[in-house]
Every structure is written in structure tokens, then in C-alpha cells.
Amino acid sequence: MISKDLLKGSLKSIILKLLAENEKMYGYEITLKVSELSGGKIKLTYGALYPILHKLENDGIVKTESEVVNNRNRIYYYLTPKGNSFAAEKIKELEEFIDTMGIFLKPNLGLSYG
Amino acid sequence: MAELTQEQLLIVNEIVSNSDITYSHLPDDLIDHICCDIESEMSVGLSFNKALERVQCKFGDSGLQRIQEDTILLIDQKYRFMKTTMKIFGNVSLALIGLGTIFKILHWPGASIGLSLGFLLLGLIFYPATILANYRKRGRKNLFLHILAILGGIFLMFGILFKIQHWPGASNLLVSGWGILLLLFLPIWLINYAIQSKNKKETGIYAIGVIGVIIFELSALFKIQHWPGASLMLIMGAILIVSVFLPLYVKNIYKKTDFISGRFIYIIIGISFFLMFGTLVSINFEKKVWPSVSYTDYYAQIEKDYFNKSNLEYFNANSSDQSLKEIHQKTEELTHLINNIKRELIVKSQNMSNAEVDTYLSNIDLISDKGQYAIVDQLFFSEEGEQYAKKLKQGLLAYKSDLIKGLDQNQDYTREIDHLFMLDDSDNEALKTWEDKVFKASSLYTTLIKLSDIDRNIHLAENLIISYHENNQVDVKE
């Protein structure tokens, strides 16, 4: 399990990445996908997912459509055109972050090649 | 994967709606998510109930609400600000009102300032902020309903403040606040609820509750305005709330959940306080205000009857005395005139037959609209009317001078008689005449009381004359 503190800032980017790769997704599908891809290491809770999704919708990055499945409304989320570029930006940011983190994690930092 | 049945879906629906999740499409999100979760748990062999239990553990007791809170807080910066404002001002205003009340009870200085400031913060900041926060939480729907709630609440709160401080306009504020909440807010809320709700039975229960509350509270208004039917409405409203709405509501709650939540206890306590308060106000009003006045009338009539009885006994024993006989005849004439006026006042104002009037004459509390002025003005002063003011004054003046004539200028008795009939007009012409002072702008109710008073005084005066005669005869005998 990866700790909440580490994940906090990256969740949004992870969700955006998933939405960018899929045409449209509903909430449960996203949690399922995250769990599946991370091999169960990242568990997206209800409480973490929906505030982010609603915030993205409110900012015009994603849009929703409703579909009746098994007698209940299923809300699908998909990226808007504006959202696509935003998602790309965020994903790039996350990559940079990981690269930077990678530097710190290299062995013998600052001692070699001297 | 297992698919939930219609009933199981309904259970999930209830869980979400019971948590008061209303923001945007969050309810749909959560219902679908919970259902998917349950279905996946069930697909590994769990029963629905077990699966539901496990899923509920995931989001915890008030977890759904917290998700909604987090969502709104993240999106709406103003909502966060309002929540903080609410907390601060709510506490401060409550503390001020509490302290103000204590100061007021103990008659310490500064109570008014504390109370006013407390109500000001409560009414102008805390309360509107709460309603606005609710408005945002519900996804900015029903703006009109929220505005009504704010207006009605503010009028009501300031009405209470004005009433406590004895400032003018309190009644207007109270009545308009109450009116907005009862006759606009509640019905519109109910209609709104009925349109949105899928559960017809629950809508029916709430409709009964709302109608009960409206009838119950209107009865208070009727009571204060002395319109007929107040007591009936009070009882009907209370019965509707206590013996129809409450059992249905409790049954509904028990069906939904098999435990008693804090909210349920609050609702029960709230309803009991509400009913107690309303009933006490009505009873208090009835007991304190009108009867305190009507007792005067009741006792005036009792005293009159007492004097009348003892006077008659004396007359019967001394029927030979011609001068006393004349006086008694005049007394009878005047009493007759006064009773006729009273009768006519009641008959004309209540539209009833002459036969019914007697019960009303002996208990003027039975009269439903006691506050009429027009009928008094018409009968006493109108040029076309009976001009009872003039007739009564002439009759009383003649009676008074006849009585004083028979007293042989005895100073003590003359002064007593004079006190019983203060009929003088003011010397200053700008000031009012006696009849203006007594009967102008006097309501039906007070006019009846004043007439009973005059009637009593007439019999008391007659009694005085008798006692003068008794003493004089003794003097003569000696």
C-alpha cells in the first residue's frame, strides 16, 4: 500500500491520465482501474475520488453524461477539449516530478564522477 | 456479476438520501458506486446484507456526508468562508443572547445591548449564512424558497427582539415573519418536495405534518385576532400532528432503519416543544388577557344583582313610602335603557336573534369578535342612529339630580352620589364631553363592560338612598 500523504498531490493527475486513455469512465470503474493497474497498491476511496471529479467538472476539465444501467443512473466522466490539454499538462508535470524524484533516489548522489 | 434487485436498489437509495446527499449529481455517483461495490462483493458469494455491511464499513458512519462536505469545500471557496463565519457568529450570538437573558432576568445593566447585538448577529449574519450554505450545498436549487426562509426567519427573530425590548412594530414583524413561513414557505416546500420525491407514501406523511403545523399555528393567529374557530383549529392541528403525523412518521422511520438515530430524537423533542409552546401561548392569552377584563363585567353584574335584591326587599317591606317608590321606578327605567343598549349592541354586531342574547349578556366572553368599534359608534353617536350616548347621559343626569334632591342637602350622601355619577363635561371646550370620553372609540367589549359598571352604580346609588332613609327614620323616631 502506498501512503495517502505520498499520493495526495498525484491523484488528480492519475485520474486525468486514465480519462485521457479512455473515452469515458464512471466512478467505480476508475477505482477498479487504479487498483488493477497498481496491483492493489493504490486504493482510491469514495472520499478521495468524488471531490476531485466534481472539482474537475466544476473547472470545465471534464463533463458528465448520465446513462441508466441496471435501473440506476450511472454518471460517466469524459475530458473536454480544454480538459485534454490540461490533462496533457498535468501528466507531463507528473512525469517531471517522478524524474526529479528519481535523481534523489540515485545511489551515491553527488559523490561519483568526480 | 450479480445484479441488484429493485428492492435492494431502493435500500441503497435510502441510505444515500438519509445521509442528506443532495449536491449536484453526487447522489447518483454514490448510489452507483455503492451498488457496484455490493455487486462485486456478492459475486464472491456474500449475501446482500453482508455485502452491504462491508461496503458501509468502507465509508463509515457519516462518511457519505463527509464526502459531500469535502466536495463542496473543494469547489466553493465562499462555502468554506460561510461555514467559518457561521461557526464564529453562531457561537458569539448565542453567547450574547444567553448572557443578555441572564442580565435581563437579574436586572443588571447592559442586558438590552447584549440581547440586541446577539439577535442582530443571529438574524443578519448567522441565519442568512446558514441558509445560504444550505443553498449552495443543494446545488443552488430553489432560490425562491431559500429567500423566503431568510426573510421569514429574519422578520420572526427581529419580531421577538422588538417584543422583548418593547419597541414599536413588534407585532407587525412577528405576524409577517410567521405569515411568510407558514403560508408561503411551508406550502411551497411541500409542493417542491412532492414533485421531487419518488416515495408517495412519505410525501403523504409530510403533507399531513405540514398541514397540521399550518392549522395549529394559524389558530394562534385566530386567537390573537379573536376570529371564530381558534380553539377548534388548535385542537385539530394538535390532533393531526400528534395522532396522525407522528405515528406514521415513526413507523416510517422504523421501517427504514432498525435503530433510533440522534436526528429522530431531535425531531420528537422539537415537536413536543413546538406543541407545548403553541398551546401555552394560546391558553395563556385566553386566560390572562380577556378574562381579566371580563371578570370586571362578571362581578359588576353580580354586585348589581346583590344590590338589586336587597333594595327590592326593602321596597317590599316599606311599600308605603311614595318618594322611594318613584326613585325605584326611575332606577328600573334606567336599567331597562342600559339593558336595551347592551342587547342591541350584541344583536346587531353578532347577527343573532333576541332569544339567544341572554347567554351572551351574562358571559360576554362568548362574543367572538370583541374588538368591533363601528357598531358602538353607530348606536351611540350616529345622527341617524339611536344616539344612545345623549339618551343615556340625559337619563343619568336626571336620575342623579332626583337622588340628590331627596337627600335634604346631606353633605356626605350627596358627595357619595356625586362620586358614583361623574357626568361633568370638561370646562375647557377643547376637551371632550363626558359621553365622548367614555364611549368614543370604545370597542364593543369595553362598552359592554362600561355599561355594566354604570348599571351597578345605579343600584349602588339606590342602595345609598335607602340607607339614608333608614337612618333618617331612626332619627325621626328618636
Descriptive account of the structure:
The complex is a heterodimer of chains A (114) and B (478). Chain A has helices at residues 4-7, 11-21, 27-37, 46-58, 81-105, and strands spanning 25-26, 62-69, 72-79. Chain A is of the alpha+beta class and 114 residues long. A three-stranded antiparallel sheet of chain A has the order 1-3-2. In chain A, helix 2 (11-21) crosses helix 5. Chain A starts with a helix and ends in a 9-residue tail after the last helix. The mean pLDDT of chain A is 88. Among the domains of chain B are: 6-66; 292-477. Chain B is built from 18 helices and no strands. In chain B, helix 10 (230-256) runs antiparallel to helix 11. Chain B is elongated and about 115 Å long. The model of chain B has no long low-confidence stretch (mean pLDDT 84). The chains are: A alpha+beta (114), B mainly alpha (478).
How would you briefly describe this protein structure?
The complex is a heterodimer of chains A (114) and B (478). By secondary structure, chain A is α+β, with helices and mostly antiparallel strands.
Q: What labels describe this entry?
A:
heterodimer; A: 114 residues; alpha+beta; Arc Repressor Mutant, subunit A; 3 strands; 56% helix; globular; B: 478 residues; mainly alpha; 18 helices; elongated
